[in-house]
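Narrative summary of target 7.
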Amino acid sequence: MAQWKDKAEFKEQVRQLAAKMNIKIKSLAMRPMKNKWASCSTDGNLNFNIQLLELDKESGMYVIVHELLHFNIPNHGKLWQSMMTAYLGDYEKTEKKLKQIAKEELISKP
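Modeled conformation, tokenized:
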């Protein structure tokens, strides 16, 4: 599977999807995060774990769409699940993969 070239490519994908979803982003950053893949605030701030650049684009797209949807849907209920399916199709497979990677990362850290 294809990987991200760099931060610029990842951020451009975030901006394109945000525009498509009619979501205004105030700030967009990539930084080390110990316990999550990303976070967003109601003010329009988005932070993504820099480790996403080491993963395939499918995993990154899952995290991007996941966070952008939270600007309009604050939970993981049926509406959020429907929208994830609409944007990504079988997103549950990627979700499981990311959970496994996170679990392995937490186990391997001293």
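The radius of gyration is 13 Å.
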